[in-house]
Structures are given as structure tokens and as C-alpha cells.
Write a structure and sequence with these properties.
heterodimer; A: about 100 residues; two-stranded antiparallel ribbon; about 5% strand; B: alpha/beta; Amidase signature (AS) enzymes; about 35% helix
Chain lengths: ~100, ~500
């Protein structure tokens, strides 16, 4: 399953990573090298083997459905690059 | 007590005794380490130093000791991997994208340490988002291993990703450090810097407030100079946390008490698949010495098989990037972290921010992860890797029917030169060949310094235990430590006046 340059551009778009043409070429090579290396997994017989869901067998704990956290809008805004009245500011998305 | 006059030579256990016996104050102990780390900037072990905070906490510790109210780690100066969120102290994950991030909350593991009286000297350097095995992917530059090959002055890597923490301990800049281990990031740097590194069972320590890399694999653990110190630190770090539903609600044993039990009658498994092609003869010889040491102390040696071992690394490089691509989706330049300037559309803002904010290795893993999770490829890659993970875990379950712990090499070789493996990702990934299986199965593993290579560089052995049986891992580790008598130290070439 080799990756071509169009696939690299499509994956970069899905991953929200801007890539220039040089990077597309470099990543094409790197991704193919990695995918070739992991190809050996195809030789393992996984018939009837369940995929691992959790390494530690445990029942997830339930708790009361009540509010246990919150009420610190100022803290949430503290590291934001651009804010206005406790809102995050982004480029205009609706004309 | 034969204490050194230099408090940076203490173990945590020594320091605990010296503080309790009023032979030294917490302030003097903190000051000695601040002096040491100030003179060690050449190693680049710290991203952020917090000397004022350490001294102010030391004052509190001195008051508590005077009042007879000392807590278990009272006055012990620690280095914290810069992957743990620390309230009000910059936390970067060694990434440009978090270059200016100041958490408004504290990770559970570090909070546990402060509640026990420990104090923070600073935040240590690491591979960006803990993705690397050499500490060369850090936005803040590589960490330099305090060790050099005999008669050489070439800079070597300290391993990764917890390379700054490993260096801080090996160079005596802190008494203990926190690390995190997703595929070997505690054990591999510990091995190549000649210190002890313990990755606990998945679920033993809370992951809350630790910057996420691969959530089904990440686990915090201690990095120290002795097995006893690892036991002391783990006791404080571990425990259930309602804020991490994968942290397990079982009592935390007194790990230190387990150390004196010895290994008489302990069944130690030797997995034949770990004897890999191209492993240096000296590593093989060290492994055999480890077997002999345990046998001499009364352990029973059992040959075991872990047939799917060779598939662990490629399976890991599907599972870990898949989880990373999902976890790192949060860095969007909107709520925190770096934001690209001068972009007028939202998608463009995301794309430029992430391209500028993430380094090359992180971008590569995000791309791989996105690809293996994308429509049409999920079954062939991700689902298959998760099935192989089940087979790897089964291998261990079967082996542990015949033995109590496993003994293996910790790394395939000693520390290598800066820049010598950066051009070939797969050769870099092979550093984790002996450690990554343990993460995939969620088990505890510990690296213990066991000898020097022909070039005079540290080599480690790894003990792997059953889930939640850190006590037996520590017991066996203590036996290796006692027999190895590893007391070599790096020459302090880095020290400035």
C-alpha cells in the first residue's frame, strides 16, 4: 500500500498540517519507508484474535451525575492567543 | 553513617536520614543542587529552572522538620519532566506549540510529590511530546549525556524521551526525577546514563495533567540513582485518582519494605526472542552475568518464549502515532499555545499554526497516525495492530505461568553520538526494541545499571513483572543492583565554575 504525493497532501489536509512541495516529497519517502517496515505485520495470523481495548482489565467506575468542576472561565482564557470578553477569537468564518 | 560531604552525592534515602538527623537542612540540600545545576547548563538538561520556588519550599520543609512534622519526601529536591503540568510554571512538552504555556492546574503525580514534601528544582528537557529515543527532537535543543566514551570527548545522547531527567540524575543535579514511558522513555534513557528507571503498570499512576502522547501506553514513573529510591518515589507517585478513570483503585504497597525479601526461590524467565541479531557481544555477556547473579542469590532460571516479540515495534509504530494524531488534534492555535500570525481563514490558521508549532518527528507521527486511521486503512493497520497487541499480551501471560519476573537487556547498545541516527527513523526506533513490548502489554518494567561497555559507557538490564507486581520487580532489581555493585560515575567535564 504505497503512498503517493496526492495521498500525502490529502493526509496533511486531514491532519491540518500545512505542507510545502519539498515536504510533500520528503514525507512521501518517509511514510513509504515506515509503511514498508510495518508490512511485516501482515504475516501474523490474527484470525479470531480480539483487538485489545484495554491493557488492564477493570470495570470503569461510575460516579454521581453531578457537576464537580468548573466556574473558572478566567483560567481557561489565560493561555489563549486572542480573546475578547472570555471568548476565543478566530478569523471570521461566516460572511 | 558514611555520608559524603557533598549533598549532591546523597541518595534519596541518605538525604531522608540526614534531614531527619539534622545533619543538613532542606535549604542547604536545595542550595547544593541549585549550585550544581547552575554549573551544568552545558548539558541542557533543564528547560525551566525554578530555584526560588525550591528554596521557598525548602524553608517550609525546614520548619516542618523542626516541628517534627516531616512528610515522606520532606525537603527532597526533584527534577520534573516538562511533560507534567505544573501550576503557574511554564510547561512546554519541549514543543514550540507550547513554548509559552502556563498551566492553571497541577498534574496529579506532581501534586502527590509536593503533598509529600518534595520540592521542584525545575522542568527537564525531553523529546518533543516525548516522541524520540535520543532527546534530539526537543525544540529546546538536545540534552547531552554526562557520560563520554573512555578517552573521547564526543557528545553522546542521553536516550529519550526522558533524557533531561536521566541526565539530571546521572550528573547529580537532583536526587530524583519524574519520567514518562510510552515505549521505553524512562527505561532506555536510564540504561544509557547509568541510573534506575521504573515504568509502573499501566494504571498505577494517574495520567491526569501529564501532556498526552499515546493514552493507552503512557505511564509516569521515577528515575533515581538506586532501586530503593525508586521504591520510595513510586510509593508517593502512585495511587487512584478520580480524575483518571484508568488509574486503578487498589492499595499502594510499601515498596521499600519489599526490597529486603531477596530472590531466593524466585523464578526468573529468560525470553529467547530477546537474543536479537546484531546485539553487541558485550550486551549478551552482561545479560548472562545478570542470570548468574540472580542464580547465585537463589533464584531459579527458566527459559521462556515470547513468540510475537518481533512484531511489537512495528505494531507500536501504528498504535502510538494513531493515538498521538488524535491527542495532538487539540493544538489548534485557538485556546492555548502557539498561533500562526497573519492568517485570515480558520482552516489556514489551524494548518499554519500546526506546521510551525510541531517539529519534524511530531509531524511525521501525526501523518502516520492520520493515515492508519483514515477511511479504508483502519482495518489493515490499526485494527490489525491492536489484535497483535492482544497476542503480545498473551505471550506474557503464558510466560508468567512459568516464572515470576523476566530478565532482559534494557537497550540493544550503549549511548550513541549526537546526530548519528537522526537520518533514519527506523534505526532510531530500534532503540526501544526491548522496552516497547512492556508498554503494549501494560506491564511494569525497570532498568537497572549493571555494568560498563568496553568504551566505559553504562549498560542496563531490564526486569519485567506481572501487572501490579512492582514489588517483585523491585526485589529482583535490588538483587541485580547488589550483585552488580555499579558505582561508576561520569567525569564532571561539564561543570563551569
Amino acid at each position: 500500500m504505497a503512498v503517493d504525493r496526492d495521498t500525502v497532501r490529502r493526509i496533511a489536509r486531514l491532519a491540518r498540517l500545512a505542507v510545502d512541495e519539498d515536504q510533500v516529497v520528503a514525507m512521501e519517502g518517509e511514510l513509504n519507508a515506515l509503511l514498508t517496515w510495518v508490512e511485516q505485520l501482515q504475516e501474523v495470523n490474527v484470525e479470531g484474535v480480539p483487538p485489545m481495548a484495554s491493557v488492564v482489565e477493570q470495570r470503569l467506575k461510575l460516579r454521581e451525575d453531578v457537576v464537580t468542576d468548573g466556574g473558572y472561565a478566567q483560567d481557561l482564557m489565560l493561555n489563549a492567543p486572542q480573546t475578547e470578553d472570555n471568548f476565543f477569537v478566530v478569523p471570521k468564518v461566516v460572511e | 553513617m558514611a555520608l559524603s560531604s557533598d549533598p549532591t552525592r546523597f541518595t534519596i534515602a541518605d538525604a531522608r536520614d540526614a534531614l531527619a538527623g539534622k545533619q543538613i537542612s532542606a535549604t542547604e540540600l536545595a542550595q547544593a543542587h541549585i549550585t550544581a545545576l547552575t554549573a551544568a547548563t552545558a548539558l541542557n538538561a533543564f528547560i525551566t529552572e525554578t530555584p526560588d520556588r525550591a528554596l521557598s519550599a525548602a524553608e517550609t520543609s525546614d520548619a516542618r522538620i523542626a516541628a517534627g512534622e516531616a512528610r515522606p519526601l520532606e525537603g527532597i529536591p526533584l527534577a520534573i519532566k516538562d511533560l507534567f503540568c505544573t501550576k503557574g510554571v511554564r510547561t512546554t512538552a519541549a514543543s514550540r506549540i507550547l513554548d509559552n504555556f502556563f498551566p492553571t492546574y497541577e498534574s496529579t503525580v506532581t501534586q502527590n510529590l509536593w503533598d509529600a514534601g518534595a520540592l521542584m528544582l525545575g522542568k527537564t528537557n525531553l523529546d518533543e511530546f516525548a516522541m524520540g529515543s535520543s532527546n534530539e527532537t526537543s525544540y529546546f535543543g538536545p540534552v547531552i549525556n554526562p557520560w563520554r566514551a573512555r578517552g573521547r570527548n564526543e557528545d553522546l545522547v542521553p536516550g529519550g524521551s526522558s533524557g533531561g531527567s536521566a541526565t539530571a540524575i546521572a550528573a547529580h543535579l537532583a536526587l530524583g526525577a519524574t519520567g514518562t514511558d510510552t515505549g521505553g522513555s524512562i527505561r532506555q534513557p536510564a540504561a544509557v546514563t547509568g541510573i534506575v528507571g521504573l515504568k509502573p503498570t499501566y494504571g498505577r499512576c494517574s495520567r491526569w495533567g501529564a501532556v498526552a502522547f499515546a493514552s493507552s501506553l503512557d505511564q509516569a514513573g521515577p528515575m533515581t540513582r538506586t532501586v530503593r529510591d525508586a521504591a520510595i518515589m513510586l510509593k508517593v507517585m502512585a495511587g487512584h485518582d478520580p480524575k483518571d478513570s484508568t488509574s486503578v483503585d487498589t492499595p499502594v504497597p510499601d515498596y521499600e519494605a519489599a526490597l529486603n525479601t531477596g530472590v531466593k526461590g524466585l523464578r526468573v524467565g529468560i525470553p529467547k526472542e530477546y537474543r536479537i541479531d546484531g546485539m553487541p557481544e558485550e550486551m549478551d555477556a552482561l545479560w548472562q552475568r545478570g542470570v548468574d547473579w540472580l542464580k547465585a542469590q537463589g533464584a531459579e532460571i527458566v527459559d521462556v518464549s515470547l513468540p510475537h516479540t518481533k512484531y511489537a515495534l512495528p505494531a507500536y509504530y501504528i498504535v502510538a502515532p494513531a493515538e498521538a494524531s488524535s491527542n495532538l488534534a487539540r493544538y489548534d492555535g485557538v485556546r492555548y499555545g502557539h498561533r500562526a500570525a497573519g492568517v485570515s481563514d480558520l482552516i489556514g490558521l489551524y494548518e499554519r499554526t500546526r506546521a510551525e508549532g510541531f517539529g519534524r518527528e511530531v509531524r511525521r507521527r501525526i501523518m502516520i497516525g492520520t493515515y492508519v486511521l483514515s477511511a479504508g486503512y483502519y482495518d489493515a493497520y490499526y485494527l490489525r495492530a491492536q489484535k497483535i497487541r492482544t497476542l503480545i499480551a498473551r505471550d506474557f501471560t503464558q510466560a508468567f505461568q512459568q516464572c515470576d519476573v523476566l530478565l532482559t537487556p534494557a537497550t540493544p547498545s550503549a549511548a550513541f553520538g549526537i546526530g548519528s541516527k537522526t537520518s533514519d527513523p527506523v534505526s532510531m526506533y530500534l532503540n526501544d526494541v526491548f522496552t516497547v513490548t512492556v508498554n503494549l502489554a501494560g506491564l511494569p518494567g525497570m532498568s537497572v545499571p549493571a555494568g560498563l561497555s568496553q568504551d566505559g559507557l553504562p549498560l542496563g538490564l531490564q526486569i519485567i513483572g506481572k501487572a501490579f507486581d512492582e514489588e517483585t520487580v523491585l526485589r529482583a532489581g535490588r538483587a541485580i543492583e547488589t550483585a552488580a555493585g555499579f558505582n561508576a560515575q561520569p567525569q564532571s567535564w561539564w561543570r563551569t565554575a
